[in-house]
Amino acid sequence: MTNIENNLLKNKKGIIIGIANDRSLAWGIAESISKSGGECILTYQNEALKKRIIPLANKINSNHIYQCDVQDYDKLKKFFADIESNVGKLDFLVHAVAFSDKDELKGDYVDTSRENFLKTMEISCYSFTSLIKYALPHLNNAASLLTLSYYGAEKVIPHYNVMGIAKSALETSVKYLAVDLGKKGIRVNGISAGPVRTLAASGISDFRYILKWNEYNSPLERNITIQDVGGAAIYLISNLGSGTTGEIIHVDAGYNVIGMKNVNAPDISKV
């Protein structure tokens, strides 16, 4: 995806929840929004993560950083009220939040504990719905709401386990939320991104293998970048996507359409 600057999001402002560092998919979206003339409000979960977010906010000239814990429901109402009082109503919200116990991603899905199942679903899926619930009074008409998913929501991916279940539920949430909010002119979509070396991906065993497999077998014969995801987000957030809602758009170099191994791909066990 090119980094050409434009004004597609001029006078648009919104919040991005879930940036971990400058390799995050959410950061690719934030950079693209900034280069398209939009204003980003960034969040951090705790003081340790705040130290990572401040320099990133400076890079995109954002003066608005707020603490947000998606599990602290008692504070979410005030969180959005404070944002509106400082910057006005929001035009977009990007949800890039996910969590699961990485030790439980290594074994079989059937061994998932009840505790980790519920926590994974709450943080990785329900948080999108709850954030929207509290954000609604503070959204402009025709606001765009966006979440991030992965192909493991559709097909079995090794070492993805309960996260695949949560992402599948998240993608279905997008459809139901799109119907609920369509009457208000608010759009809800998701991006199913291909594998990228992010902090979240570090918890998946054999991730280097997955990257190579996608590179060799996707139609474009490459892996995606966070800029690719940022470009798709601009379409969905801007007026270019005004007629698109309830969709999960794949940004995976086309891997999701493949039915078998590329016959010209090398033996990955020897690479």
Describe this structure in words.
With 271 residues, this protein is of the alpha/beta class. The protein has a single domain, classed as Rossmann fold. It is built from seven helices and seven strands; from the N terminus they run E-H-E-H-E-H-E-H-E-H-E-H-H-E. It has helices at residues 25-35, 47-59, 73-87, 114-135, 161-182, 207-217, 226-237, and strands spanning 13-17, 39-44, 65-67, 90-95, 139-149, 187-193, 248-251. Strands 3-2-1-4-5-6-7 form a seven-stranded parallel beta sheet, with helices on both faces. Helix 1 links the parallel strand 1 and strand 2. Helix 1 packs across helix 7 and helix 4 (114-135) packs parallel to helix 5 (161-182). It is globular.
For the record, what CATH class applies? Alpha Beta
Task: Count the DSSP helices.
Answer: 7
What strand line-up does the widest sheet have?
3-2-1-4-5-6-7
Q: Note poorly predicted spans.
A: none
Q: How big is the Rg?
A: 18 Å
Give the strand content: 15-25%
What is the second-level CATH architecture?
A: 3-Layer(aba) Sandwich
Helix content: 25-40%
Mean pLDDT, all residues: 93
Can you tell me the number of structural domains?
1
Please trace the helix and strand order, writing H or E for each element: EHEHEHEHEHEHHE
Which secondary structure elements does this structure contain, and how are they paired or packed?
Layout: E1 13-17, H1 25-35, E2 39-44, H2 47-59, E3 65-67, H3 73-87, E4 90-95, H4 114-135, E5 139-149, H5 161-182, E6 187-193, H6 207-217, H7 226-237, E7 248-251
Parallel strand pairs: 1-2, 1-4, 2-3, 4-5, 5-6, 6-7
